[in-house]
Amino acid sequence: MPITLGQEFGGYAANVLNAAAHLAIDSSQLLELNLGSTAVGTGLNAGDDYTQRAVDNLARCTGLPLEPAANRFRVTQSMGDVLAYSGALRRLAVEVSRVASDLRLLSSGPRAGIAEILLPAVQPGSSIMPGKVNPSVPEMVNQVCYQVLGCDHTIAAATDAGQLELNVMMPVIAWNALHAVGILGRAIDVLRERAVDGLEADEARCRELLDRSTAVATALSPYLGYAQTAEIAKAAVATGSSIRAVVLERGLMDERRLDEILSPAAMTEPGVAGKHQ
Fold this sequence. Notes:
The chain is an all-alpha fold and 277 residues long.
């Protein structure tokens, strides 16, 4: 069914922003530190004054609102806070990868694909398909996002490997968490700078695909009934004609009314297309 590029890209933006918001929430859990817990969380040989002073000093140096853990045993036993952060990072990576995959699909062409959008050329082109702009940046982003998923899997396994009040796997947890956020952040910047900012819509191609689409017959169903609408779609496929041409040829609707119903604007809004509000 018809959808505007604005609606589609608005969905992309909302999904990425939603994932980023959840990442911000889960990141806040990392601000709770177990400094002063010593070996098992009891704080033996480190009084409360040490914990508060150490955390205050770190907060001053980093500019982050760090605070002592409300329950030092919880934070000493579990790397769950890092796992939650990694899970949120994984979600963001999946959303960004989905966008990158759609950019590859929507830009596929120039003749045999969808080719509704034009990506900026970032390399000489394809050696075997002249005139083709390879989606190199989205492909790179896909690969980075897959690596982030791998980092998250490692963090989950290492978090599970903790025993009692000790997790000796913290180095691999920290390395993967830092590596994942570093490469994903850079990949998102490159996707914006080298692909999204210079992206253009091919209006002529979008119009061509819309005119050839048999799915637009769905808008006629409230007026002509499902059975007749399905027959129109089959006839359009069999003859290579447009839905509009078949309806007019059969005298099922006058041209003005048909234009109202098959209007792209009408079909991309809630309600029955062509029905006067």
